[in-house]
């Protein structure tokens, strides 16, 4: 008889059906491999993880009236959706320059576009802030068209490591370029209650700016840090406990969205860079050149509207959008991120 105990076998580590890491989580992150999964997600009105669905594509192309041989700029490359449509209009003639500040997504988009056959002979991609459009224009010469699709891409929002959303645990960063400036967590550490309240009001019209800024500063006074997205969400949730129960959850969700937006605008100096861009725009456009700008909140839209009106009155723009164009109801239904978009345009004299 063999008395020997069976040799202990090490259990094979089982990953489980619920992958933990973002990159393991969604089939959509490999769109080539899981085309059906991607199509299903889009059909449900959502954006597949790791992708961005471009907004108002037809409306933008109608405004820009791109013809082969022209030179233009996509100031916000993102996933490259608009860039790709513009390249199709150029039909291998002319040149497109595309910018983005994001050092993480930009190489991925460049590779994707190169795979589709758009290399440096037709497309120049630069990691640059669009506030430096005057420097880009030194290389491009007068531009026939310019597009800016402001804000963040779905890939940036969906990646918890970037900290753009309270919906998933991650570092409270919110920088479009994490190599520059300070994170939202560092910013909160040094800000006064008064300044924070002003930031929440100015950048996001937050109705509970007083309560939330008081709660955040109190948290630091207690010796606690706020370095993750979920910790900030918790502080906001606790600060709004006084709201009657029936309305509370919805109010908390909206305040979280607005507070994250306010912080993002602040750490990326979004109003300042947009102002610089708008000021430098006319000088970079050729005569008859067209610009289209897609905004996602009232603060951005106000700046664009004011600048277009100002240069129109000065005779620098010969025509501007009388009213902002909104995405069609069917686009809003199929892509919830389109709902708050406003599109304005101008044509240089
Ligand atoms: C809404 S996404 C653009 C999506 C793109 N139009 C598409 O179709 O895929 C906005 C992009 O602009 C970039 N961005 C935001 N502010 C910028 C700035 N000041 N300079 C350059 N890029 C900026 C963001 O990093 C993000 O990738």
UniProtKB/TrEMBL annotation:
S-adenosyl-L-methionine binds at residues 80-82, 100, 130, 149, 156. One of its GO terms (molecular function) is rRNA (cytosine-N4-)-methyltransferase activity. GO terms for biological process: rRNA base methylation. The keyword Kinase does not apply. Keywords: Cytoplasm, Methyltransferase, rRNA processing, S-adenosyl-L-methionine, Transferase. One of its GO terms (cellular component) is cytoplasm. It comes from the Bacteria. Its EC number is 2.1.1.199. It catalyses: cytidine(1402) in 16S rRNA + S-adenosyl-L-methionine = N(4)-methylcytidine(1402) in 16S rRNA + S-adenosyl-L-homocysteine + H(+). Pfam families: Methyltransf_5. Gene3D superfamilies: Putative methyltransferase TM0872, insert domain (1.10.150.170), Vaccinia Virus protein VP39 (3.40.50.150). It is found in: Cytoplasm. NCBIfam families: 16S rRNA (cytosine(1402)-N(4))-methyltransferase RsmH (TIGR00006). Belongs to the methyltransferase superfamily. RsmH family. Specifically methylates the N4 position of cytidine in position 1402 (C1402) of 16S rRNA. This is Ribosomal RNA small subunit methyltransferase H. The gene is rsmH.
């Amino acid at each position: 008889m063999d008395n020997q105990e069976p040799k202990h076998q090490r259990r094979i580590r089982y990953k489980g059906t619920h992958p933990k890491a973002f990159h393991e989580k969604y089939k959509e992150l490999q769109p080539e491999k899981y085309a059906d999964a991607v199509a299903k997600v889009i059909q449900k009105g959502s954006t597949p993880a790791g992708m961005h669905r471009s907004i108002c594509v037809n409306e933008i192309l109608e405004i820009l009236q791109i013809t082969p041989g022209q030179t233009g700029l996509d100031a916000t490359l993102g996933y490259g959706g608009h860039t790709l449509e513009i390249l199709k209009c150029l039909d291998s003639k002319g040149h497109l320059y595309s910018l983005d500040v994001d050092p993480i997504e930009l190489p991925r988009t460049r590779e994707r576009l190169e795979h589709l056959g758009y290399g440096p002979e037709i497309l120049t991609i630069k990691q640059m802030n669009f506030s430096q459009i005057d420097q880009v224009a030194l290389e491009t010469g007068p531009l026939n068209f310019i597009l800016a699709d402001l804000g963040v891409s779905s890939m940036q929002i969906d990646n918890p490591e970037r900290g753009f959303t309270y919906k998933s645990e991650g570092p409270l960063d919110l920088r479009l370029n994490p190599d520059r400036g300070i994170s939202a967590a560092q910013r909160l550490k040094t800000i006064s209650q008064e300044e924070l309240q002003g930031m929440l009001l100015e950048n996001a019209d937050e109705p509970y700016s007083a309560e939330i800024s008081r709660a955040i500063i109190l948290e630091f006074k207690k010796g606690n840090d706020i370095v993750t997205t979920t910790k900030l969400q918790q502080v906001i949730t606790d600060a709004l406990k006084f709201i009657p129960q029936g309305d509370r959850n919805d109010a908390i969700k909206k305040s979280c969205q607005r507070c994250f937006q306010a912080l993002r605008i602040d750490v990326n100096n979004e109003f300042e860079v947009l102002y610089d861009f708008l000021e430098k725009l006319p000088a970079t456009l050729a005569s008859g050149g067209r610009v289209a700008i897609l905004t996602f909140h009232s603060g951005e839209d106000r700046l664009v509207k004011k600048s277009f009106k100002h240069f129109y009155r000065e005779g620098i723009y010969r025509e501007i959008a009388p009213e902002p164009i909104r995405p069609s109801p069917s686009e809003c239904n199929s892509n919830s991120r389109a709902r708050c978009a406003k599109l304005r345009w101008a044509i240089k004299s």
